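Sample intake sheet
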Amino acid sequence: MSKDIIAKACEIVKKQSVMGGEYTGQYCILTLIDAEGFPTSSVITASKSDDIKWVTFCTLLNSNKVKEIKNCSRASVCFAGIDHSVNLVGEIEIITSEDVKQEMWYDALKMHSPEGYTDPSYCVLKFTAKRYTLFVNGEYIAGTI
């Protein structure tokens, strides 16, 4: 039963990622820790994912997200809907590699980075999950990755 729930959660994350093949225009919530130790949450689009193991996001180096990550790399990501909640807890890193930036680039990012993936202020955030809490199809499980 728990393998079915995990598989369904992986499908949900993939569908809610731009590069998941069936992007639905949905967002997820990224929670970081600010300089005063308080959680801060923001709505963000997931770029790509590997099941529930990791998720990437695109942003700008001067964003509050990057400032908070430099202070504390602990993070949480939540994909939620009427019938599901995929909560992941782990660590997040800032990636500025040109290869990764190009791989994660998608056209909607042009409104934030008109220069494209070569924009020096554009970066990728990679969240790596350590544990999960899943509520899918009326079933609830929690565990570690």
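Comment: Residues 17 and 24 are 8 Å apart (CA to CA). The two ends are 17 Å apart (CA to CA).
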